Amino acid sequence: MRRIGVFLLLWGCTAGEEITPKEVEERVPEFRIHQEVARRGDVFSTVVGRLGVDSAISARFVKLLAESVKVLKVGDTLRVVGLDGKPLRLELRRAREIYEYWVDGDRFVKKRRFRRLTPRYVEMEVETTLWDEFVERGLSPMLLVNLVNIFAWKIDFSTETQRGDSLRVLFAPDGTVYYAEYVGKSVGRHVVVRFRGAYYDEEGNSIRMTFLKSPLRSYRITSGFGIRFHPILKKWRPHHGIDYAAPYGTPVRSVADGRVVFAGWRGGYGKTVIVKHKNGYSTLYGHLARIFVKRGQHVSQGQVIGSVGSTGLSTGPHLHYEVRQHGRRINPALIKAEPEKPLPEDLKDEFRSMLQEYRRLIKALSLRLTGV
Protein backbone atom coordinates (compact mmCIF):
# COMPACT_ATOMS: atom_id res chain seq x y z
CA MET A 1 0.00 0.00 0.00
CA ARG A 2 1.47 3.32 -1.05
CA ARG A 3 1.68 5.97 1.68
CA ILE A 4 -0.10 9.25 1.12
CA GLY A 5 1.73 12.25 2.61
CA VAL A 6 0.16 15.51 3.71
CA PHE A 7 2.81 18.11 2.87
CA LEU A 8 1.79 21.37 4.57
CA LEU A 9 3.40 24.71 4.07
CA LEU A 10 0.67 25.42 6.04
CA TRP A 11 -1.22 22.98 3.98
CA GLY A 12 -0.58 21.13 0.78
CA CYS A 13 -0.26 17.52 -0.16
CA THR A 14 1.78 15.02 -2.03
CA ALA A 15 0.98 11.48 -3.07
CA GLY A 16 4.45 10.31 -2.13
CA GLU A 17 6.32 12.14 -4.90
CA GLU A 18 9.13 14.58 -4.15
CA ILE A 19 8.01 18.21 -4.42
CA THR A 20 10.42 21.10 -4.86
CA PRO A 21 10.06 24.36 -2.90
CA LYS A 22 9.03 26.12 -6.13
CA GLU A 23 6.25 23.61 -6.80
CA VAL A 24 4.99 23.93 -3.23
CA GLU A 25 4.85 27.71 -3.54
CA GLU A 26 2.83 27.37 -6.74
CA ARG A 27 0.32 24.97 -5.17
CA VAL A 28 -0.32 26.43 -1.69
CA PRO A 29 -0.46 29.88 -0.07
CA GLU A 30 1.89 31.13 2.66
CA PHE A 31 -0.89 31.17 5.25
CA ARG A 32 -0.39 30.20 8.89
CA ILE A 33 -2.49 29.91 12.04
CA HIS A 34 -1.22 29.62 15.61
CA GLN A 35 -3.51 29.47 18.59
CA GLU A 36 -3.16 29.04 22.35
CA VAL A 37 -5.82 28.08 24.91
CA ALA A 38 -5.85 29.85 28.27
CA ARG A 39 -5.08 27.59 31.23
CA ARG A 40 -5.64 28.07 34.93
CA GLY A 41 -3.51 30.97 36.21
CA ASP A 42 -2.84 32.44 32.76
CA VAL A 43 -3.04 36.17 32.10
CA PHE A 44 -3.17 37.92 28.73
CA SER A 45 0.57 38.54 28.54
CA THR A 46 1.52 34.87 29.12
CA VAL A 47 -0.89 33.51 26.51
CA VAL A 48 -0.03 36.17 23.94
CA GLY A 49 3.65 35.43 24.60
CA ARG A 50 3.07 31.80 23.59
CA LEU A 51 1.69 32.95 20.22
CA GLY A 52 5.20 33.97 19.15
CA VAL A 53 4.20 37.26 17.48
CA ASP A 54 6.45 40.32 17.24
CA SER A 55 7.00 41.97 20.63
CA ALA A 56 5.56 45.33 19.49
CA ILE A 57 2.38 43.69 18.16
CA SER A 58 2.23 41.48 21.25
CA ALA A 59 2.23 44.51 23.57
CA ARG A 60 -0.50 46.22 21.56
CA PHE A 61 -2.59 43.03 21.48
CA VAL A 62 -2.36 42.67 25.27
CA LYS A 63 -3.49 46.28 25.69
CA LEU A 64 -6.43 45.80 23.32
CA LEU A 65 -7.53 42.63 25.11
CA ALA A 66 -7.34 44.23 28.53
CA GLU A 67 -9.46 47.14 27.28
CA SER A 68 -12.03 44.89 25.59
CA VAL A 69 -12.70 42.01 27.96
CA LYS A 70 -10.78 42.75 31.18
CA VAL A 71 -10.60 39.15 32.44
CA LEU A 72 -9.18 36.04 30.73
CA LYS A 73 -11.11 32.82 31.36
CA VAL A 74 -9.93 29.21 31.27
CA GLY A 75 -10.75 27.86 27.81
CA ASP A 76 -10.54 31.23 26.03
CA THR A 77 -8.61 30.83 22.79
CA LEU A 78 -6.17 33.39 21.40
CA ARG A 79 -5.33 33.01 17.73
CA VAL A 80 -3.04 34.77 15.25
CA VAL A 81 -3.68 34.37 11.52
CA GLY A 82 -0.69 35.21 9.35
CA LEU A 83 -0.27 35.76 5.62
CA ASP A 84 3.16 35.79 3.95
CA GLY A 85 4.88 35.85 7.34
CA LYS A 86 2.96 38.87 8.67
CA PRO A 87 0.02 38.92 11.15
CA LEU A 88 -3.25 39.45 9.33
CA ARG A 89 -5.73 39.04 12.18
CA LEU A 90 -5.61 38.52 15.94
CA GLU A 91 -8.56 36.91 17.72
CA LEU A 92 -9.95 36.16 21.16
CA ARG A 93 -12.50 33.35 20.94
CA ARG A 94 -14.88 32.79 23.84
CA ALA A 95 -17.85 30.47 24.33
CA ARG A 96 -20.41 32.94 22.96
CA GLU A 97 -18.41 35.72 21.31
CA ILE A 98 -15.36 36.46 19.21
CA TYR A 99 -13.21 39.60 19.32
CA GLU A 100 -11.32 40.19 16.08
CA TYR A 101 -8.47 42.67 15.67
CA TRP A 102 -7.62 43.14 11.99
CA VAL A 103 -4.20 44.56 11.19
CA ASP A 104 -4.67 47.59 8.94
CA GLY A 105 -1.30 49.19 8.26
CA ASP A 106 0.01 50.38 11.61
CA ARG A 107 -3.30 50.11 13.46
CA PHE A 108 -5.82 47.52 14.58
CA VAL A 109 -9.48 47.50 13.50
CA LYS A 110 -11.57 45.84 16.20
CA LYS A 111 -14.71 43.82 15.51
CA ARG A 112 -16.91 41.93 17.92
CA ARG A 113 -19.44 39.31 16.96
CA PHE A 114 -21.56 36.75 18.77
CA ARG A 115 -21.55 33.18 17.59
CA ARG A 116 -23.87 30.24 17.79
CA LEU A 117 -23.19 26.55 17.47
CA THR A 118 -24.03 26.13 13.78
CA PRO A 119 -22.24 22.87 13.08
CA ARG A 120 -21.44 21.34 9.75
CA TYR A 121 -20.52 17.73 9.14
CA VAL A 122 -18.39 15.93 6.58
CA GLU A 123 -17.19 12.37 6.17
CA MET A 124 -14.67 11.16 3.63
CA GLU A 125 -12.40 8.34 2.58
CA VAL A 126 -8.88 9.13 1.41
CA GLU A 127 -8.48 8.25 -2.27
CA THR A 128 -5.42 10.32 -3.17
CA THR A 129 -4.60 12.90 -0.46
CA LEU A 130 -6.49 14.66 2.33
CA TRP A 131 -5.81 17.95 0.57
CA ASP A 132 -7.47 16.68 -2.61
CA GLU A 133 -10.48 15.45 -0.64
CA PHE A 134 -10.88 18.86 0.99
CA VAL A 135 -10.56 20.70 -2.33
CA GLU A 136 -13.09 18.38 -3.98
CA ARG A 137 -15.66 19.14 -1.26
CA GLY A 138 -14.94 22.85 -1.20
CA LEU A 139 -13.85 22.73 2.45
CA SER A 140 -11.87 25.53 4.07
CA PRO A 141 -8.10 24.94 4.30
CA MET A 142 -8.39 26.28 7.87
CA LEU A 143 -10.30 23.14 8.79
CA LEU A 144 -7.48 20.93 7.52
CA VAL A 145 -4.91 23.05 9.35
CA ASN A 146 -6.87 22.75 12.60
CA LEU A 147 -7.20 18.97 12.20
CA VAL A 148 -3.46 18.58 11.60
CA ASN A 149 -2.74 20.64 14.72
CA ILE A 150 -5.27 18.79 16.89
CA PHE A 151 -4.12 15.32 15.87
CA ALA A 152 -0.42 16.31 16.06
CA TRP A 153 0.19 14.14 19.15
CA LYS A 154 -1.53 11.07 17.69
CA ILE A 155 -1.06 11.10 13.91
CA ASP A 156 1.77 12.28 11.69
CA PHE A 157 -0.14 13.15 8.51
CA SER A 158 3.13 13.52 6.58
CA THR A 159 3.98 9.83 6.89
CA GLU A 160 1.06 7.86 8.36
CA THR A 161 -1.88 8.67 6.07
CA GLN A 162 -2.84 5.92 3.63
CA ARG A 163 -5.37 5.42 0.87
CA GLY A 164 -8.55 4.00 2.35
CA ASP A 165 -8.26 5.88 5.67
CA SER A 166 -11.49 7.60 6.73
CA LEU A 167 -12.31 10.87 8.46
CA ARG A 168 -15.49 12.23 10.08
CA VAL A 169 -15.61 15.83 11.34
CA LEU A 170 -18.22 17.97 13.10
CA PHE A 171 -17.09 21.59 12.75
CA ALA A 172 -18.10 25.25 12.72
CA PRO A 173 -18.03 27.47 9.60
CA ASP A 174 -14.87 29.17 10.90
CA GLY A 175 -13.01 25.83 10.98
CA THR A 176 -13.31 25.12 14.72
CA VAL A 177 -13.41 21.34 15.21
CA TYR A 178 -15.99 20.05 17.70
CA TYR A 179 -15.59 16.32 17.08
CA ALA A 180 -13.36 14.34 14.74
CA GLU A 181 -12.77 10.65 14.17
CA TYR A 182 -9.87 9.36 12.07
CA VAL A 183 -9.54 5.67 11.23
CA GLY A 184 -6.25 4.75 9.60
CA LYS A 185 -4.71 1.50 8.45
CA SER A 186 -1.42 2.29 10.16
CA VAL A 187 -2.56 4.46 13.09
CA GLY A 188 -5.84 2.83 14.10
CA ARG A 189 -8.86 4.78 15.35
CA HIS A 190 -8.50 8.15 17.07
CA VAL A 191 -11.29 10.42 18.32
CA VAL A 192 -10.95 14.02 19.51
CA VAL A 193 -13.66 15.95 21.36
CA ARG A 194 -13.62 19.71 22.01
CA PHE A 195 -14.51 20.66 25.58
CA ARG A 196 -13.90 24.01 27.26
CA GLY A 197 -11.45 25.07 24.57
CA ALA A 198 -9.25 21.94 24.76
CA TYR A 199 -9.37 18.48 23.16
CA TYR A 200 -9.84 15.07 24.76
CA ASP A 201 -10.45 11.49 23.72
CA GLU A 202 -13.78 9.73 24.32
CA GLU A 203 -12.82 8.91 27.91
CA GLY A 204 -11.94 12.48 28.86
CA ASN A 205 -8.17 12.00 28.63
CA SER A 206 -6.23 14.95 27.21
CA ILE A 207 -4.86 14.24 23.74
CA ARG A 208 -1.92 16.56 24.44
CA MET A 209 1.30 14.67 25.03
CA THR A 210 4.55 15.87 26.54
CA PHE A 211 6.26 15.56 23.13
CA LEU A 212 5.06 16.22 19.59
CA LYS A 213 5.69 13.48 17.06
CA SER A 214 7.73 15.83 14.85
CA PRO A 215 9.25 19.34 15.03
CA LEU A 216 7.95 20.03 11.48
CA ARG A 217 4.47 19.91 10.01
CA SER A 218 5.80 19.33 6.49
CA TYR A 219 8.80 17.22 5.64
CA ARG A 220 10.34 14.15 4.06
CA ILE A 221 12.68 11.97 6.14
CA THR A 222 16.02 11.56 4.37
CA SER A 223 18.17 10.00 7.13
CA GLY A 224 17.20 8.06 10.21
CA PHE A 225 18.96 7.26 13.47
CA GLY A 226 21.97 4.93 13.12
CA ILE A 227 24.98 4.45 10.84
CA ARG A 228 25.05 6.25 7.50
CA PHE A 229 27.47 7.35 4.76
CA HIS A 230 28.05 11.09 5.30
CA PRO A 231 27.40 12.94 2.00
CA ILE A 232 30.08 15.61 2.67
CA LEU A 233 32.73 13.79 4.72
CA LYS A 234 32.44 10.75 2.40
CA LYS A 235 32.74 8.15 5.13
CA TRP A 236 30.57 5.94 7.30
CA ARG A 237 29.78 7.41 10.70
CA PRO A 238 27.02 7.36 13.36
CA HIS A 239 23.99 9.55 12.68
CA HIS A 240 22.58 10.53 16.04
CA GLY A 241 19.28 12.01 14.93
CA ILE A 242 16.73 12.28 12.15
CA ASP A 243 17.07 14.48 9.06
CA TYR A 244 13.89 16.06 7.71
CA ALA A 245 14.05 17.57 4.21
CA ALA A 246 11.80 20.63 3.86
CA PRO A 247 11.75 23.92 1.94
CA TYR A 248 13.83 26.86 3.13
CA GLY A 249 12.00 28.84 5.78
CA THR A 250 9.71 26.02 6.96
CA PRO A 251 8.87 26.74 10.63
CA VAL A 252 10.64 24.55 13.19
CA ARG A 253 8.70 23.92 16.42
CA SER A 254 9.87 22.96 19.88
CA VAL A 255 8.49 19.48 20.48
CA ALA A 256 7.88 20.14 24.18
CA ASP A 257 7.84 22.84 26.84
CA GLY A 258 11.32 23.76 28.00
CA ARG A 259 14.13 26.28 28.29
CA VAL A 260 16.59 27.24 25.56
CA VAL A 261 20.12 26.35 26.70
CA PHE A 262 21.86 27.09 23.40
CA ALA A 263 21.01 29.31 20.43
CA GLY A 264 23.75 30.08 17.93
CA TRP A 265 26.42 28.55 15.66
CA ARG A 266 27.50 25.01 16.61
CA GLY A 267 30.20 23.70 14.26
CA GLY A 268 28.92 21.30 11.63
CA TYR A 269 25.37 21.72 12.90
CA GLY A 270 25.41 25.34 11.71
CA LYS A 271 22.79 27.56 13.32
CA THR A 272 21.43 25.47 16.17
CA VAL A 273 18.92 25.59 19.02
CA ILE A 274 19.02 23.23 22.01
CA VAL A 275 16.05 23.07 24.38
CA LYS A 276 16.14 21.43 27.81
CA HIS A 277 12.95 19.65 28.93
CA LYS A 278 11.70 17.78 31.99
CA ASN A 279 12.87 14.31 33.03
CA GLY A 280 16.38 14.79 31.70
CA TYR A 281 15.38 15.25 28.05
CA SER A 282 16.89 17.79 25.66
CA THR A 283 16.33 18.32 21.94
CA LEU A 284 18.64 19.75 19.28
CA TYR A 285 17.57 21.47 16.04
CA GLY A 286 20.41 21.99 13.55
CA HIS A 287 21.18 23.56 10.13
CA LEU A 288 18.66 26.36 10.73
CA ALA A 289 18.38 29.35 8.43
CA ARG A 290 17.15 31.62 11.21
CA ILE A 291 16.87 31.42 15.00
CA PHE A 292 13.88 33.05 16.71
CA VAL A 293 14.74 32.41 20.38
CA LYS A 294 17.50 33.31 22.82
CA ARG A 295 19.44 31.38 25.43
CA GLY A 296 17.56 31.24 28.72
CA GLN A 297 14.16 31.79 27.08
CA HIS A 298 11.28 29.53 28.07
CA VAL A 299 9.40 28.03 25.12
CA SER A 300 6.10 26.19 24.93
CA GLN A 301 5.30 23.06 22.98
CA GLY A 302 4.67 23.91 19.33
CA GLN A 303 6.31 27.34 19.56
CA VAL A 304 8.31 28.25 16.45
CA ILE A 305 11.98 28.48 17.44
CA GLY A 306 13.62 28.73 14.02
CA SER A 307 13.30 27.96 10.32
CA VAL A 308 14.73 25.26 8.08
CA GLY A 309 17.99 26.12 6.35
CA SER A 310 21.27 24.59 5.17
CA THR A 311 23.91 26.06 7.48
CA GLY A 312 26.95 24.08 8.63
CA LEU A 313 27.82 20.75 7.00
CA SER A 314 24.74 20.43 4.83
CA THR A 315 24.06 19.62 1.18
CA GLY A 316 20.60 21.19 1.05
CA PRO A 317 17.73 22.57 3.14
CA HIS A 318 16.80 20.21 5.95
CA LEU A 319 16.46 19.96 9.73
CA HIS A 320 18.73 17.75 11.80
CA TYR A 321 16.82 16.75 14.95
CA GLU A 322 18.35 15.00 17.98
CA VAL A 323 17.01 13.85 21.35
CA ARG A 324 19.10 13.18 24.43
CA GLN A 325 18.08 11.78 27.80
CA HIS A 326 20.46 12.51 30.68
CA GLY A 327 23.10 13.38 28.06
CA ARG A 328 22.77 10.12 26.10
CA ARG A 329 21.61 10.31 22.49
CA ILE A 330 18.49 8.25 21.83
CA ASN A 331 16.43 7.49 18.76
CA PRO A 332 13.81 10.29 18.48
CA ALA A 333 11.32 7.78 17.08
CA LEU A 334 11.42 5.85 20.37
CA ILE A 335 10.87 8.76 22.76
CA LYS A 336 8.17 8.05 25.35
CA ALA A 337 5.63 10.87 25.44
CA GLU A 338 3.36 11.00 28.48
CA PRO A 339 -0.21 12.35 28.27
CA GLU A 340 -1.33 15.42 30.17
CA LYS A 341 -3.72 15.10 33.10
CA PRO A 342 -7.28 13.91 32.30
CA LEU A 343 -10.39 15.92 33.09
CA PRO A 344 -11.20 16.34 36.80
CA GLU A 345 -13.95 14.01 38.01
CA ASP A 346 -16.31 16.93 38.70
CA LEU A 347 -16.29 17.81 34.96
CA LYS A 348 -16.77 14.30 33.59
CA ASP A 349 -20.60 14.45 33.57
CA GLU A 350 -20.57 17.76 31.69
CA PHE A 351 -18.05 16.30 29.23
CA ARG A 352 -20.17 13.19 28.61
CA SER A 353 -23.24 15.35 28.00
CA MET A 354 -21.31 17.40 25.44
CA LEU A 355 -20.04 14.24 23.73
CA GLN A 356 -23.58 12.86 23.58
CA GLU A 357 -24.80 16.10 21.99
CA TYR A 358 -22.03 15.99 19.38
CA ARG A 359 -22.98 12.42 18.46
CA ARG A 360 -26.65 13.37 18.23
CA LEU A 361 -25.78 16.17 15.83
CA ILE A 362 -23.56 13.87 13.78
CA LYS A 363 -26.35 11.30 13.46
CA ALA A 364 -28.84 13.96 12.35
CA LEU A 365 -26.46 15.57 9.86
CA SER A 366 -25.32 12.19 8.54
CA LEU A 367 -28.93 11.28 7.73
CA ARG A 368 -29.20 14.50 5.74
CA LEU A 369 -26.10 13.62 3.75
CA THR A 370 -27.55 10.25 2.78
CA GLY A 371 -30.96 11.75 2.03
CA VAL A 372 -32.75 9.51 4.53
Using the alpha-carbon principal axes, give the shape: globular
Taking the sheet with the most strands, its summary is: 10 strands, antiparallel
User: Share of helix among residues?
Assistant: 10-25%
CATH domain fold name of the largest domain: Nuclear Transport Factor 2, Chain: A
Number of strands: 22
> What structural class do helix, strand and pairing data support?
alpha+beta
Task: Please tell me how large the radius of gyration is.
Answer: 21 Å
Count of folded domains: 3
What percent strand?
35-45%
* N-to-C SSE string, H for helix and E for strand: HEHHEEEEEHHEEEEEEEEEEEEEEEEH
Low-pLDDT runs: 1-29, 224-230, 232-237
CATH architecture of the largest domain: Roll
Q: How many H/I helical runs?
A: 6
Description:
With 372 residues, this protein is of the alpha+beta class. Helix content is 19%, strand content 35%. Strands 11, 14, 15, 16, 17, 18, 19, 20, 21 and 22 form a 10-stranded antiparallel sheet that branches. Strand 2 and strand 3 form a beta hairpin. The longest helix has 26 residues, at 345-370. It is globular, with a radius of gyration of 21 Å. The chain starts with 20 loop residues before the first helix and ends with a helix.
Give a quick summary of the entry:
The protein has helices at 21-27, 44-51, 55-68, 130-136, 141-150, 345-370; strands at 31-37, 77-83, 86-93, 97-104, 107-114, 120-125, 166-171, 177-184, 188-195, 198-200, 220-223, 226-229, 236-239, 242-245, 251-253, 258-265, 271-276, 281-291, 298-299, 304-308, 318-325, 328-330. The protein has 372 residues and is α+β, with helices and mostly antiparallel strands.
